[in-house]
Write a structure and sequence with these properties.
4-stranded antiparallel beta sheet, transferase
């Protein structure tokens, strides 16, 4: 898939002892000398390195290109299936059952509850940022716009985003 800051592709990770596993590689591209390291990428790396939940995509490692000003960084993550967008579009030909929809919603709400329990707001919840694998396991991804909020901060319930 392709996102705002990079391209996600699949690869095989060779582990110690010769074991192999399929991983997703999110390649971040930016002009380091001109722009510096993108704040959104830093936030995503920081949050993903601290979050552990079955319904939140897991980051295994971060790797960077070589040189004095590396402009290519890679986030090595667990593969998490297809965008929810694809599943929703496919439901036009083969509708999901009520039980399937409830199961997906429950997983999404569990992911959000896990985030909110550690004062993290995702802020970019949309179908391309919700991944579902072939077994029906849902994972929330793309934490570039996520923010950690202070535990005592008053939130304005009347505030809405532009989209």
């Amino acid at each position: 898939g392709k996102g705002q800051f990079g391209i996600v592709s699949q690869a095989v990770r060779c582990k110690r002892g010769g074991a192999k596993e399929v991983v997703a590689i999110k390649m971040l591209k930016f002009d380091f000398l001109k722009e510096g390291f993108p704040l959104e990428a830093l936030r995503e790396i920081t949050l993903l390195s601290s979050l552990r939940h079955p319904n939140i995509v897991r980051m295994h490692a971060v790797a960077c290109g070589s040189g004095e000003a590396p402009s290519e960084w890679h986030l090595v993550m667990e593969p998490a299936g297809h965008e929810l967008t694809t599943l929703v579009k496919g439901a036009r030909q083969r509708p999901m059952t009520e039980a399937q929809v409830k199961h997906l919603m429950l997983q999404l709400l569990r992911a959000l509850a896990a985030l909110h329990s550690v004062w993290v707001m995702h802020r970019d919840l949309k179908t391309p940022n919700v991944l579902v694998d072939d077994r029906g396991l849902l994972r929330l991804c793309d934490f570039g716009l996520a923010r950690r909020v202070c535990c005592g901060l008053e939130l304005d319930p009347s505030y809405t985003t532009s989209q």
